[in-house]
Design a protein that fits this description.
10 helices
Length: 242
């Protein structure tokens, strides 16, 4: 069994999720990522921070959704003209509705689309699932964001689980989770490009803690585990169903 088959089993995806969360929580408990965030803040450079924040903006969910739709529709337009682009857009709405209803075979409608178009469109439901999962984990864990420590002098270990204050939704990093579900999905569909794709995801993830206040390193690692696990679980379930 190859690494891809092992990781796309339910046990493999669960291991990735638990590993990411475990490392993130261990870094928090040990204080290592807190010390790293203090060091970054002590060596703050405005120009560097602005550049990193601009890079981290590419990890925003809305930016990623527009990028995925842009690539998919661009390819459909190139291959089928305006009619092809319209069909791809209409198909996206139909298939998302089918997925939300739990309809079996919801992927079938995308079968005739080019590979990259199909990958960009089919990852959208995974992005929704990842967003829901990471919000649930944020609420359950309630870790304070770095700004609470660096700006307000709060105790970095004083969590507020089951709260709805976004200042205590640090772990896992939602932007990193959405980045990793997309790039892991693309890496599974384009195995020859898997390492460059995953390297880009790591760069986007790193920008979330290098920007000093959005997240700790542990949050980013936990977010990467969440996103990768969703992509792996979905990929395995779809291919086993086939």
């Amino acid at each position: 069994m190859t690494w891809q088959h092992r990781l796309t089993t339910p046990a493999g995806a669960a291991a990735v999720l638990l590993c990411g969360l475990g490392v993130g929580l261990a870094l928090w408990a040990s204080g290592l990522d807190i010390a790293l965030q203090r060091w970054l803040y002590a060596h703050y450079h405005d120009g560097f921070n602005r550049a990193i924040r601009a890079l981290s903006g590419l990890a925003l969910g809305r930016t990623q959704v527009w990028a995925l739709l842009g690539v998919a529709l661009g390819l459909a337009l190139y291959q089928g003209g305006l009619q092809g682009a319209w069909q791809a857009l209409r198909l996206t709405g139909q298939q998302l509705q089918a997925w939300l209803r739990g309809a079996r075979g919801w992927l079938a409608g995308w079968a005739e689309q080019p590979l990259l178009t199909r990958l960009c469109l089919t990852v959208l439901p995974m992005l929704l699932a990842t967003g829901l999962l990471q919000i649930i984990l944020k609420i359950l864990i309630g870790r304070p964001r770095p700004k609470e420590l660096l700006w307000n002098g709060a105790d970095p270990y004083l969590a507020q689980p089951l709260g709805f204050d976004a200042s205590f939704w640090s772990l896992p990093s939602g932007h990193t989770a959405s980045t990793f579900v997309i790039f892991t999905w693309l890496a599974l569909g384009l195995p020859r490009w898997r390492w460059p794709l995953l390297a880009v995801a790591c760069v986007f993830g790193a920008s979330r803690f290098l920007a000093v206040t959005p997240h700790y390193l542990g949050d980013v690692i936990a977010g990467a585990g969440v996103g990768a696990a969703v992509a792996l679980a979905a990929w395995g379930a779809i291919h086993r169903a086939r």
